[in-house]
């Protein structure tokens, strides 16, 4: 249970920062991350939401294996952060790292059967959470929200 002081501090923060789109988007994102990670924990998968993009990229680029550098570039993330996530995913049995036959300096990332299962489970879980959230909105509100979020993203994407 929150203390009165904690509630008071949150009210002050919302009074000042609640007017900013960036704060609100970050707050909603944080709530989604917490909910998804909690739900994932209940499924027995040892994956965090931050690792999803790597798994999904590897899964849906199966015709053309990706290197660690490719993944870092596509996600616009620091290579060392991607390497840490990849090592964790490998340790947990979701991916396999294989040296490129052509360029031994390149490591190619492949999904294991457990990784494919995890991607499918995550997609199912995301659909359930999406339905839960959007069921509180009208169809028009949901469509408008998606269009607005896409518009905001496209204005700040580099």
Strand content: 5-15%
The order of strands across the largest sheet is 1-3-2
SSE order, one letter for each helix or strand: HHHEHHEEHH
Average predicted local confidence, pLDDT: 89
C-alpha Rg (nearest Å) = 19 Å
Q: What is the count of helical runs?
A: 7
- The number of E-state strands comes to 3
Q: Note the overall shape.
A: elongated
Could you list the spans in which at least 5 consecutive residues all have pLDDT below 50?
A: none
Q: Class by helix and strand content? A: mainly alpha
What proportion of the residues is helical, as a percent range?
55-70%
- For the termini, the CA-CA separation is 41 Å
Q: Strand count, sense and closure of the main sheet?
A: 3 strands, antiparallel
Question: Can you describe what's shown?
Answer:
This protein is mainly alpha-helical and 158 residues long. The chain contains seven helices and three strands; from the N terminus they run H-H-H-E-H-H-E-E-H-H. Strands 1-3-2 form a three-stranded antiparallel sheet. Helix 3 packs across helix 6 and helix 4 packs across helix 5. The protein is elongated. The model has no long low-confidence stretch (mean pLDDT 89).
Chart the SSEs and their pairings:
Blueprint: H1 4-17, H2 21-43, H3 52-60, E1 66-67, H4 68-75, H5 79-91, E2 95-99, E3 107-111, H6 113-134, H7 139-156
Antiparallel strand pairs: 1-3, 2-3
Helix pairs in contact: 3-6, 4-5
Sum up the structure in keywords.
158 residues, mainly alpha, three-stranded antiparallel β-sheet, 7 helices, 68% helix
Question: Can you summarize this structure?
Answer:
The protein has helices spanning 4-17, 21-43, 52-60, 68-75, 79-91, 113-134, 139-156, and strands at residues 66-67, 95-99, 107-111. It is mostly helical.
């Amino acid at each position: 249970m929150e203390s009165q002081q904690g509630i008071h501090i949150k009210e002050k923060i919302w009074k000042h920062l609640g007017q900013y789109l960036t704060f609100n988007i970050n707050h909603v994102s944080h709530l989604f991350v917490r909910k998804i990670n909690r739900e994932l924990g209940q499924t027995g998968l040892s994956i965090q939401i931050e690792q999803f993009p790597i798994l999904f990229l590897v899964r849906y680029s199966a015709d053309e294996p990706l290197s660690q550098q490719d993944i870092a570039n596509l996600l616009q993330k620091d290579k060392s952060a991607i390497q840490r996530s990849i090592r964790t995913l490998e340790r947990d049995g979701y991916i396999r790292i294989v040296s490129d036959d052509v360029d031994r300096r390149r490591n190619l990332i492949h999904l294991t059967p457990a990784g494919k299962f995890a991607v499918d489970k995550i997609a199912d879980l995301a659909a359930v959470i999406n339905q839960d959230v959007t069921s509180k909105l009208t169809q028009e509100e949901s469509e408008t929200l998606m269009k607005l979020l896409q518009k905001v993203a496209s204005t700040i994407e580099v």
